[in-house]
Specification:
By secondary structure, the chain is mainly beta. It has one domain (about 10-415): Integrin alpha, N-terminal (Methylamine Dehydrogenase, Chain H, 7 Propeller). The chain has strands at about 25-30, 50, 55-60, 70-75, 80-90, 105, 110-115, 125-130, 135-140, 175, 185-195, 195-205, 225, 230-235, 240-245, 255-260, 270-280, 285-290, 300-305, 310-315, 325-335, 340-345, 360-365, 370-375, 385-395, 395-405, 410-415. The strands form 7 sheets. The protein has a 4-stranded antiparallel sheet, with no helix packed on it.
């Protein structure tokens, strides 16, 4: 297993060799719903993104002036962060509502995201927000054209994201819808800037095969490799989910789909792939599943190219014993320059009187090392049920919990440092 050296190499500085087994220090950066009527947002479900200046951005599913969610910023000044709401989503305003997935940032300081609802047809949107102009623009309203899908619950992706690069602002964005499309089971799409407008192309409509063996209702974000192939995960009607590949064809329009692994319900290879995939320098794909061996523990898996096929192996099964390492993986994985991967579990660990409020972990290719037990503080003041993908910023890890906090139970933003 050879992990990629990415431009997020600074994460390697987070855990020097002499302290790799030590838990990290937790800092609470914000407790949601501490402002009247939850004007600061509530119940975040997605991770954070950092811009070139080290500012952090995210969304909440609910809360805000209209209770349709907010875009927020943690503005960085030296080693401290100041929380502020940038945008209140508004269903009746047709801009977007209920954002469920994380954001991406471009080289010019703009941020992009998706919403499950809202827009002109209440089918979801892709939007861009400019902090400098304090302006949100809807780039695409779903249900605008035949077969474009609806209900976007995954984050956007682009060429270079796997390496940690910011979006260039001019190339195509990729994403999925959880429903709609030609077969009404979701789509994969590209969104490309053309002048001052954006053009959406449906790359694949899921459930084109019998029993949806080609996948249905995709929810995880797309991984783009250097050759322009797209990889992602989806559910299936009669098995434990799939990992698929979409390959370019000549010209534009639909892509060729290939299933590279089908998970088996109640089997040792895992079930229910969840969150973002990552790709190593050797072309191996790593991800997590919600279940393994018929239990809700979950697993870390690896897919290795072998000619025209892919071989799957399980690298770690969570909750194989007493669940102290956590279970129920949430969000996706990130990788560093020391052949480690990092992720979070929504449940388990030793917090909350031994019941567990979730964990953050590092996997070094051999074993899982816990970095933090959530709900370790009185009344879960540090938060519980961590969700989304961890984010590296200036050598530390940042993320969110969707519940808990010292004042309310509406979620937290945290920092983990040596």
């Amino acid at each position: 297993m050879k992990f990629l050296s990415v431009c997020t190499l600074a994460i390697a500085l987070l855990l020097p060799a002499s302290t790799q087994a030590k838990p990290l220090h937790y800092t609470l950066l914000h407790n949601f719903c501490t402002v009247g009527d939850c004007a600061d947002g509530s119940f975040p479900t997605a991770g954070l993104v950092a811009d070139a200046k080290g500012n952090l951005f995210g969304v909440t599913e609910t809360g805000g002036t209209h209770n349709n969610g907010v875009i927020f910023e943690l503005e960085r000044s030296h080693a401290s962060y100041t929380f502020k709401v940038l945008h209140d989503f508004c269903f009746s305003c047709e801009d977007a509502s209920f954002p469920l997935a994380g954001l991406i940032a471009d080289v010019n300081g703009n941020i992009y995201g998706t919403s499950a609802g809202g827009g002109a047809h209440d089918c979801g949107t892709v939007f861009r927000f400019s902090p400098a102009k304090n302006k949100l623009k809807v780039l695409h309203d779903f249900c605008t054209q035949d077969g474009d899908g609806n209900t976007v619950v995954s984050a956007l992706s682009y060429a270079g994201r796997n390496s940690g690069a910011l979006y260039d602002g001019v190339s195509s964005l990729f994403g999925t819808t959880a429903s709609g499309g030609a077969n009404d089971h979701g789509t994969a799409f590209s969104l490309t800037p053309v002048g001052k407008s954006w053009t959406l192309s449906t790359l694949y409509a899921f459930c084109a095969q019998s029993s949806c063996s080609d996948g249905e209702e995709p929810s995880g974000e797309i991984l783009v490799d250097d050759a322009g192939n797209l990889f992602g995960s989806a559910g299936t009607a009669n098995s434990g989910g799939v990992v698929y590949e979409l390959s370019p064809t000549f010209g534009s329009g639909p892509m060729t789909q290939k299933i590279i692994h089908t998970f088996c319900s109640n089997c040792a290879d895992g079930e229910g792939p969840v969150g973002a995939l990552v790709m190593t320098s050797a072309g191996e794909i790593l991800g997590t599943t919600e279940n393994a061996n018929g239990s809700e523990g979950g697993a870390i898996f690896e897919l290795t190219p072998n000619g025209d096929s892919w071989d799957e192996s399980i690298l770690h099964v969570f909750c194989a014993g007493n669940c102290k390492d956590g279970y129920a993986p949430s969000g996706g994985l990130i990788q560093d320059g020391r052949r480690n991967i990092y992720g979070m579990n929504a449940l388990g660990g030793t917090g909350e009187g031994g019941v567990g409020g979730g964990t953050a972990y590092r996997f070094n290719g051999t074993k899982v090392i816990k970095l933090y037990d959530f709900c370790s503080q009185k009344n879960c003041g540090d938060g519980r049920l961590p969700m989304g993908t961890l984010t590296l910023n200036r050598g530390n890890l940042f993320g969110i919990t969707s519940q808990g906090g010292p004042v309310t139970a509406a979620g937290t933003i945290f920092e983990l440092s040596p």
